[in-house]
Amino acid sequence: MGKPVDLVQGTLDLLILKTLSLEAMHGWAIAKRIQQVSREVLQVQQGSLYPALHRLEQQGWIKAKWAESETGRQAKFYSLTAAGRRQLEGETANWNRLSSAIDMVMNEA
Amino acid sequence: MRWFVQLRMRIQMLFGLGKAAARLDDELQFHLEQQIAENLAAGMSADEARYAALRNFGNPALLREQARATWSWTWLELLLRDLRYGVRTLARTPGFAAIAIVVIALGIGANVALFTIVRSVLLKPLPYKDPDQLVALYEHSADDQYPYNIIAPGVFAEWKKQNRSFSDLALLGDAEFNLSGVSGQLPEKVRGAACTWNLLPTLGVQPALGRNFTEADDRHSANATVLMSWGLWKRRFGGDPAILNQTIHLDGQPYTVIGILPAGFAYPDASTQLWTPVYHYKPAEQMDSLAAHQFQAIGRLKPGITAAQGVADLSVITRRLHDQHLDNPFVGKAANIKPLLEDMVGDIKQPLYVLLAATCCVLLIACLNVANLLVARAAARRKELAIRTALGGGRLRLLRERLMESFLLSAAGGAAGLLLAYGAVHWLLSTRKDMSRVEAIHIDGVVALFTVGLIVLCALFAGLISSLSTKSNQLLLSLQDSARGSSTGRAHTALRRSLLAAEVGLTVVLLIGAGLLLKSYQRLRSSDLGCITQNVLTMRIQLFGNRYREPAQQVNFYTALLARVRALPGVDAAGIAEAVPGQGYWQDEDFSVVEHPPLPQGTAQYAIYRFADSGFFAAMDIPLLRGHTFDPNRKLDQADQAIVNASFVKQYFPNEDPLGKHLHNEKRDYEIVGIVGDTRYSLAEDPKPIQYYPLYEGKENAGTLVLRSSRDVEQLAMPVQRIIQEMDHDLPVSDVLTMDQLLGKSTMDESFNATLLAVFAGLSLLLVAVGLFGVLSYIAAQRTSEIGIRIALGAQREQVLWQMLMDGLRPAIFGLGFGLAASVGAARLMRSILYGTQPLDPVVFASVAAMLLLVAALACMVPAWRASRLDPMRALRTE
Questions:
Q1: A73 at interface of B, judged by CB pairs closer than 8 A
Q2: Single residue among B24, B56, B72 that ends a domain in this structure
């Protein structure tokens, strides 16, 4: 396993939205989930995670609710709004187009 | 819907910032706890788990800041914080804040007041329909003397008939009415205008009540009708609409009030209260005259026609008339046009712009002064700022604080300045009712915006200049600099010195402007009128109505009045003339000398025309150079004598004895019986030839009564008015003024401009003195230990004093040089508003330079003297 990859902004937003599309979760869980699903390749730094979450919330793409976590402590749970879901669809399509384009270029040789 | 969510989010954040901040802490804490829990689960010890988590987590404060930075109101939060800091730092030095605010308030106040006036009077379009199409019309006189001569009605009639460029042309002339009182009211003299019926349609104005004149009203045979101003209607008739179609008495004649004009209508000026049709009001023969230049005319250009085309059109008509009447030398030979706005405010344009420029200088000086104060503050806080920079305070952040401070000062100063401007404009409105378009002046939204603009400008100017003074790359230097024992480098005061030099320069320009205007005013007031001006009382009387229809009745009244006034105890002499010197041009008349060969066809001689009684010259102390005065016993048809002044003799009887010669005027011959000294019809004008004719002819019904007394002449005003009331209680007396007051009134513009500019200049001088004092005090304080060492080492106190003094005076001297150079240019621009004064008047320049140096020396003296008296021991112990 190589060095953890730093995420470019925008990509992180997409990953957060995608992660939240399954269920509502709190910040720590979001970071963990991204780490697990990417098999430890993607490490989300707290320094980028929370600003990103707050930005997405300000944008109205995710909403937050305080609820009891699995440990019984109050935690801030984020979930996708309808607008966020639409945003995710659009961003996903964009991403697919971009990554397949990059694939094509890379595999052409 | 997303905007709605965002909006709700923003509002929540705005009102729940504190709560949100606590929640953020909570959220981050939770994250940390989760990490610790995970670490524990991975088998670390409690301490180890905690440290690892913290290490991983990074700087919590930074993290918090970064998350908060995404919130929508961060900028507001930062702004509020800066504001709080700003208020706090300013409150710590209330003296500094108060001075800075007062200085800015004066600068902004003067500027806003002048801007309000300039905008309302010069820049705002006239309140008429399509004002760009409106022009004032003039005749170009046949002898080329008067390119903008007022109009003869006969010429106007031809213009109206033949022109193809104007959609409408209107004529108007002066009229003064005695408005009789109803049910016990006193009679009142009211200024009015006699205008063609279409004046209002030409301007595009409708009466507020009632109707406009019709063409049928504007005939000699029509019934008398009158339109009334809103102000007169409210004041005199209580705003009662029942006045419509009622009769009022003007000069004893019944007039039907047909309409009330809207409030604020002020054409030709704000003092005009009544309008009546000119063809009804004026005698028919006058209205046919091609030579009686007594009227103003305005026109509305047809759409798409330029002023030049309009001039060409009217000029062709005028030229044709001129050529058809070559025997009449008074028919103009061309036409001229001015835009109506230019026509109304042209005279006051330059003085107003001069004053506006002066207020701009004052504002600039105020800004420089505040910048200077801020620089001084920054210098005092250098150590604090250096430490903050060393600890990572961002440059931008420090700059923002500085700007916020100067913004606070400017805003407070601007608010006070707006109040000041409000007061100033009101004062002006009450003192300068005579100014054109004075009714249009008021503070409105644009002025408020202008004020805001000025505030921002001042804030940026003062703030940025003072920010320039601290350079962050000199960080170490400033930390070292303030170490014990060493004194501050000169470089730190260089900026303040240049600011001061600029201030001094601007002040010199203002002082010289004010000096020139004051000198010009003084010249004007001291120009020799040709008669006495002390202890003389004047009043205007006007005979009207059936009682004075016959010339004999007028002559009897005048004679009886003079006899009674002269008999009054305290009256040394009295007389009546059409107008007294300094009261204006009034009228001229053409004449010929019977004994001279006839003038070539198409040329004419004319001179100022006055009638006077036999005692007038003695009463005014106008010297009788030769011959004698009128014979009071030769009345009416026998009144065939004339008197001329010295200029008249010089121009029309060179090398010839005028006594015994005859002047032919209005179909009669008059024998010249006397020659009197020259007088000026206006203080600003050189003496002109004047022809005097006897009052006893009974031709004119309005004149000025003058009386001279060796004691307080104003005491006589009431007894004389009582005599007039006894003789005719309907006769209004107006303009009861001493000669001094009359001249003061006629030179009000000049005195007003000179006084205002002098006030501005004085203000700037004060600011400069304060600035010099402050800078030198500061330098002296900074160099306390240095001076202490010098004195301890044996420096003479005089030497120290001299050195400090020169230090302080250097910027003043630089500024003086720069200011004198700039004044040369500025003074040339003022040339046209100066009377009898050269723009480069050496006396003014020299005295300004001397005064400035004196003030600067005085301002520097105190701190320099204090420095030279330093006790070396105490000086070395300071720090």
A1: yes
A2: B72
Q: Are residues B554 and B521 in the same domain?
A: no
Measured distance CA(B721)–CA(B726) in Å, rounded: 9
How confident is the model at residue B469, as a pLDDT?
Answer: 67
Report chain A residues whose CB lies below 8 A from the CB of B34.
28, 71
What are the chain B neighbours of A58 within 8 Å (beta carbons)? 6, 9-10, 13, 70-72
Tell me, what's the pLDDT at B492?
59
**B633 and B575 housed in the same domain:** yes
Asked if A66 reaches chain B (Cβ–Cβ under 8 Å), the answer is yes
Residues B223 and B297 in one domain: yes
Does the pLDDT of residue B212 top 80, yes or no?
A: yes
Quick check: is B138 in a domain?
no
Contact check, Cβ <8 Å, A54/B33: no
Q: Count contacts between A and B (CB, < 8 Å).
A: 75
Q: How far apart are CA A17 and CA A52, in angstroms?
A: 11
Residues of A in contact with B37 (CB under 8 A): 71
Residue contact A73–B30, C-beta within 8 A: yes
The pLDDT value recorded for residue B605 is 87
Task: State mean pLDDT over B764-779.
Answer: 83
Same structural domain for residues B656 and B722?
yes
Cα A11 vs. chain centroid, distance in angstroms?
8
Edge-first strand listing for the sheet containing A25-26: A25-26, A74-80, A62-68
How far from B596 is each of B209, B664, B705, CA to CA, in Å? 59, 11, 35
Do B52 and B175 reside in the same domain of the chain?
A: no
The partner residue sitting opposite B5, judged by closest CB among A46, A74, A83, is A83
pLDDT band at B60 (very low <50, low <70, confident <90, very high): confident
pTM summary value: 0.76
The reply to whether B571 and B699 lie within a common domain is yes
Per domain, the residue ranges of chain A are: 11-108
Q: Which of A58, A74, A86 to mutate to test the interface with B (most CBs of B within 10 A)?
A: A58
C-beta separation of B340 from B126 below 8 A: yes
Q: Are residues B215 and B241 in the same domain?
A: yes
Q: A90 CB near a chain B CB, below 8 Å?
A: no
Task: Determine, for residues A73 and B69 on separate chains, whether the beta-carbon distance falls below 8 Å.
Answer: no
Total domain count, chain B:
4
Beta bridge partners of B642: B672
Residue B282 DSSP label: S
> What CA dihedral angle connects B810, B811, B814 and B816, to 10 degrees?
-110
Average the pLDDT over each of B141-150, B421-430, B493-502, B756-765 and give the range with the smallest value: B493-502
- pLDDT at B72 (0 to 100): 64
* Binary contact (A81, B34; C-beta < 8 A): no
- Token pair of B790 as six digits: 């010098």
Structural domain boundaries enclosing B207: 150-331
Portion of chain B with pLDDT greater than 70, in percent: 96
Using CB atoms, which residue from A27, A55, A82 is nearest to B27?
A: A27
In sequence order, the β-bridge partners of residue B43 are none
> Residue B398: inside a domain, yes or no?
yes
Mean pLDDT of chain B: 86
Q: What pLDDT, on the 0 to 100 scale, is given for residue A109?
A: 58
Identify whether residues B502 and B364 lie together within a single domain. yes
Check whether A3 has a pLDDT greater than 60: no
More confident residue, A73 or B573: B573
Count the neighbouring beta carbons within 10 Å of the beta carbon of residue B660.
Answer: 10
Is B392 within a domain?
yes
B115 belongs to a structural domain = no
Kindly report the CATH number that applies to the domain delimited by A11-108: 1.10.10.10
**B298: confidence class by pLDDT, cuts 50, 70, 90:** very high
Q: Is B531 helix (H, G, I), strand (E, B) or coil?
A: coil
